[in-house]
Write a structure and sequence with these properties.
The protein has 184 residues and is mostly helical. It has two domains: 1-77, Orthogonal Bundle (Rna Polymerase Sigma Factor, Chain: A); 82-179, Arc Repressor Mutant, subunit A (Orthogonal Bundle). It contains nine helices and no strands. Helix 1 (3-26) packs antiparallel against helix 2 (29-48) and helix 5 crosses helix 7.
Length: 184
């Protein structure tokens, strides 16, 4: 099979998945279509340079391009009233008007990229550990462990906000409370 035919088959098999994931990540179809076009442009160049076309690699390209889109949006979308004179974002911890989604999104951004990735795959894209394993290059058991650790780290970031926002109760908080009242 010719290189162009192999690419055409790969494109046909993966386009809908990449577009769907891009739209789930960025929230609007036109931007997702632009991102998907860029993903396949990079894939075409990679293929022409002798690289193999595999879904896990394509997914990494998508992740990088979506990450670029997030950074672009963050630079564009900082409200001017939250900027100090130097242009740095100012965050007031005393504000209690943030809705839970904003608080969780901010906590997610404080996690490292591998933690954010496994949480996005599980919760935004609804993938099982078996589906995530080839994308992350590890076993489904390792995915479950990574997901558990990422949830714990996210919970730890949200834990200080519990008194203010009442968002959730972490396993660690339940364990501390259980130990203090004599439960095992």
């Amino acid at each position: 099979m010719q290189a162009e035919q192999r690419f055409a088959v790969f494109y046909a098999e993966t386009y809908r998945l990449i577009l769907t994931v891009a739209q789930q990540r960025v929230g609007d179809l036109p931007t997702a279509q632009d991102i998907t076009s860029e993903v396949f442009r990079v894939a075409w160049i990679h293929h022409c340079d002798g690289g193999t076309l595999e879904l896990p690699w394509l997914y990494l390209v998508l992740r990088n391009i979506v990450g670029h889109e997030y950074r672009s949006r963050a630079r564009r979308d900082v409200p001017t009233e939250l900027l100090d004179l130097d242009g740095a974002a100012v965050w007031s911890s005393s504000e209690s008007t943030h809705d839970d989604a904003i608080v969780v999104r901010a906590a997610l951004e404080r996690l490292n990229e591998p933690d954010r990735e496994v949480l996005r795959l599980a919760y935004w894209e609804g993938l099982t550990s078996e589906e995530m394993a080839p994308l992350l290059g590890c076993s489904s058991g390792a995915v479950r462990k990574r997901l558990e650790r990422a949830r714990d780290r996210l919970a730890a970031l949200l834990d200080p906000l519990d008194d203010r926002a009442g968002i959730h109760e972490t396993r660690r908080a339940r364990d501390r409370r259980g130990a203090s009242d004599g439960r095992d």
